[in-house]
Specification:
four-stranded parallel beta sheet; Rossmann fold; 4 strands; alpha/beta; single chain; globular; about 40% helix
């Protein structure tokens, strides 16, 4: 479960204590990695110190499978997140379909291009005006081409008053056009804890 911009590995258990009950109910091991506030879970093409895609999709997986009684296969793994973490979950799941069997996003920043000056994304990809290819190649909505009709179970949602609502609607439309199976939900709500607390129940 990936946190949003400005958050940390403590975000999910602190703001959403019900996930502990969900872990018992659904027999899940829940892992909350730290995304360093604004990593956007990229392997940065401009800063080789920032390799959060590798960290979460490779190194962390290996360590969790070593230490815990996991199903060490994509059929036993799901990834989700909120806001920046929703982007990160889809970003990694789309690119690493051998690792993840299911992915979710709630209020996800699934198209980062409309926000060139927000959340320190330019520190990860470079200034948009000078590094347009980095932005085009690392925004979730442009990675739908990696999907087929069978590898990933997908669910995503967004509140209709959220600033990421338009991006999520466009992602839904693109998946429909490409006949990618998925569950998409839009409901009343903003980009806030109240919305995510309700949303995450459905994702579980």
């Amino acid at each position: 479960m990936l946190h949003g911009a400005g958050g940390s590995y403590k975000t999910w258990p602190f703001y959403f204590p019900n996930i502990k009950e969900y872990a018992d109910k659904y027999k899940f091991i829940i892992v909350c990695p730290d995304g360093n506030k604004t990593s956007w879970y990229f392997d940065s093409p401009i800063d080789n110190r920032i390799k959060y895609e590798t960290y979460v999709s490779n190194e962390l997986i290996v360590e969790i499978d070593k230490k815990y009684n996991t199903i060490a296969d994509k059929s036993g793994r799901a990834i989700t997140g909120l806001s920046m973490g929703g982007h990160g979950a889809f970003y990694m799941a789309f690119k690493h379909q051998d690792v993840w069997g299911a992915a979710g996003s709630t209020s996800g920043g699934v198209d980062i291009r409309p926000f060139p000056n927000n959340w320190e994304i330019s520190k990860r990809l470079g200034v948009y005006s000078d590094n347009q290819d980095n932005w085009e190649n690392n925004t979730v909505i442009n990675l739908v081409y990696l999907l087929d009709q069978k590898n990933l179970k997908l669910i995503f949602d967004c509140g209709v008053d959220d600033f990421f609502y338009d991006a999520n609607k466009r992602l839904h439309k693109k998946m429909l056009e490409r006949k990618i199976p998925h569950d998409y939900i839009e409901r009343p709500g903003k980009h806030n804890i109240e919305y995510w607390t309700n949303s995450i129940k459905y994702q579980f």
